[in-house]
Write a structure and sequence with these properties.
This protein is an alpha/beta fold. The protein has 2 domains: 124 residues, Rossmann fold, CATH 3.40.50; 90 residues, Arc Repressor Mutant, subunit A. It is 57% helix and 13% strand. The chain has 11 helices and 6 strands. Strands 2-1-3-4-5-6 form a 6-stranded parallel beta sheet, sandwiched between helices. Strand 1, helix 1 and strand 2 form a beta-alpha-beta unit. The longest helix is centred in the last third of the chain and has 15 residues. The radius of gyration is 17 Å and the shape is globular. The two termini are 34 Å apart. 43% of the residues are buried. InterPro entries: CheY-like_superfamily, NreC/VraR/RcsB-like_REC, Sig_transdc_resp-reg_C-effctor, Sig_transdc_resp-reg_receiver, Tscrpt_reg_LuxR_C, WalR-like. Pfam families: GerE, Response_reg. This is Response regulator transcription factor.
C-alpha cells in the first residue's frame, strides 16, 4: 500500500485529490495538511511514501516544505501539484528535491501515475511540465540547443521501431496501461519496452526519457 500525505490550503482541493487517489486500491491518504509547516510536521509523524504538496500555502510554501521533507524524511518522495506553470516554480521544485511536478488542470490519471512513479523511486513530470522544461532549455544558446537535439535524435535512433513508438507515448505522459491499450498489447510488454528504452537512452526515469522524446521530436509523431 502506498501511503500518501496531501497538503493544500483549500479543503475542496484536498478532497478532490483524496477522491482521485482513492480510486486506486493500492493508494491510501494517511494525512492531510493545510500549510507547509504542518505538512513537514505530519510527514515526520506519519512517514508517508509520497507527499503531494501545493506550491502556494501559508506557513511555508510547498517548495520550501519539499526541501525540508526531503532533508528530514528522505524516504518520502515529493510530488508538487499546482495551478502555476511558470518555469521558475518548476525548476525550483525539481531543484529542491521534488521527484514529480503536476498541474491541477491535468488528467486525474496523471496524479495516480505520478504518485506511483515517485513511490517506486522514479521521477514524473506531466507532459505539459516536460514540454516547459524543454522550452526552458530551448531558451538557451542556439548552438547548444541544436547539439542537444542532434544528440537526442542519435539516442532515439538506437531504439527499435516499437520502442520509438512507446517513447512517443511516454513523452505525452501516458501510463504503461494507457500505452498498452493504444498499442493493443499486454501492459507487461510495455513495461519491458520502457525498461529497455531507459537503458538504451542512458536515463534513470520516465521524466528524463520524456525530455529526450520532446527534444528528438518523437512526441509529435504520436499526436
Amino acid at each position: 500500500m502506498i501511503r500518501v500525505l496531501v497538503a493544500d490550503d483549500e479543503p475542496m482541493i484536498r478532497a478532490g485529490v483524496r477522491a482521485i487517489l482513492s480510486t486506486d486500491p493500492g493508494i491510501a491518504v494517511v494525512a492531510e495538511a493545510a500549510g507547509g509547516r504542518e505538512a513537514v510536521d505530519l510527514a515526520r509523524r506519519h512517514r508517508p511514501d509520497v507527499a503531494v504538496l501545493d506550491v502556494r500555502m501559508p506557513g511555508g510554501d510547498g517548495i520550501e516544505a519539499s526541501a525540508e521533507i526531503r532533508r528530514t524524511v528522505p524516504a518520502t518522495g515529493v510530488v508538487i501539484l499546482t495551478t502555476f506553470g511558470e518555469d521558475d516554480y518548476i525548476l525550483r521544485a525539481l531543484g529542491g528535491g521534488a521527484a514529480g511536478f503536476l498541474v491541477k488542470s491535468g488528467d486525474p490519471e496523471e496524479l495516480i501515475a505520478g504518485v506511483r512513479a515517485v513511490a517506486d523511486g522514479a521521477a514524473y513530470l506531466s507532459p505539459r511540465v516536460a514540454a516547459r522544461v524543454v522550452a526552458h532549455l530551448a531558451a538557451g544558446d542556439a548552438g547548444a540547443l541544436a547539439g542537444r537535439r542532434r544528440a537526442a535524435r542519435a539516442r532515439v535512433d538506437t531504439l527499435t521501431a516499437r520502442e520509438r513508438e512507446v517513447l512517443g507515448f511516454l513523452g505525452t505522459g501516458l501510463s504503461n496501461g494507457q500505452i498498452a491499450r493504444r498499442l493493443g498489447v499486454a501492459e507487461g510488454t510495455v513495461k519491458a519496452h520502457v525498461s529497455s528504452i531507459l537503458t538504451r537512452l542512458g536515463v534513470d526515469n520516465r521524466a528524463a526519457a520524456a525530455v529526450v522524446a520532446h527534444e528528438a521530436g518523437v512526441v509529435a509523431e504520436q499526436r
